[in-house]
Amino acid sequence: MPEGPSIVILKEEVQQFTRQKVISVSGNSSIDIQRLSGKTILEFKTWGKHFLICFEGFTVKTHMLMFGTYRVNERKETEPRLSMVFKNGELNFYTCSIKILEGDINAIYDWEEDVMNENWNPKKAKQSLDKIPNEMICDAVLDQNIFAGVGNIIKNEVLYRCRIHPESLVGKIPSKDLKQIIEECSIYSFEFLHWKKNHELKKHWLAYTKTTCLRCNLPMKKKQTGRRNRRSFFCNNCQKLHL
Fold it and tell me: Environment class of residue 62 by beta-carbon count within 10 Å: exposed (0-12), middle (13-18) or buried (19+)?
């Protein structure tokens, strides 16, 4: 599943279609895609893992789910979920979720929850965490209503950087460490973006998929953690468990 930085890259790749009219539309989406025909795209936005195509009065929301892909000015052999053709090119989405959101997009999304948005509010994230003291931090960091855009790679890397065990309870983590986790969720997301653009993301992983702790030279633990049952990679020696 693409994480927030990958969706930001998508937004950057399609800027050529801003203020362009949709000449034709097709695809196997269940929404009324013909509604897009003849309409002009006002802007592209992202919120976490959501890619938003904004028209006058409504927005098309795409979510890549686990295996979604897209193509700019080219096509795959399979039928797209949504295909939009413009005067200067085309944009195609595959194996993803497509929905229409009615009304003002700013009334639907809270931009303060997106770790890569200019309106990201770490204080609000801290307030949200304070309300779930019994939640494991591995689950809390993946809560899109607190850290929109953070996925499993970012979760693992942030917790390793902060030396916090993924099964630690939010309410038991010292305030200074919780603050660091919040800050690193945004910091690492922008580093992720930079590395991915340079095609070097994997070489910067310190925890995700690793078998040996780079700090301790001890075996890394691989385990499905939390109620979300997502893969965690951690070191029992240097990542402290707070219970």
Answer: buried
Q: Does pTM surpass 0.90?
A: yes
Query: How confident is the model over 152-200, as pLDDT tens digits?
Result: 999 999 999 999 999 999 999 999 999 999 999 999 999 999 999 999 9
Q: How many helices (H) and strands (E) does the chain have?
A: 5, 10
Domain 4-107 superfamily per CATH: MutM-like, N-terminal (3.20.190.10)
- Provide the mean pLDDT of the chain: 97
Q: State whether the Cα torsion 199-203-204-207 is positive or negative.
A: positive
Which pair of structure tokens corresponds to residue 104?
A: 């003002």
Q: How far apart are the C-alpha atoms of 66 and 27, rounded to whole Å?
A: 19
Task: Give the per-residue pLDDT at 200.
Answer: 98
Which residues make beta-bridge pairs with 51?
46, 62
* 3-state DSSP assignment of residue 65: coil
Q: Which CATH topology does 111-234 take?
A: Helicase, Ruva Protein; domain 3 (1.10.8)
4-107 against 111-234: fold identical: no
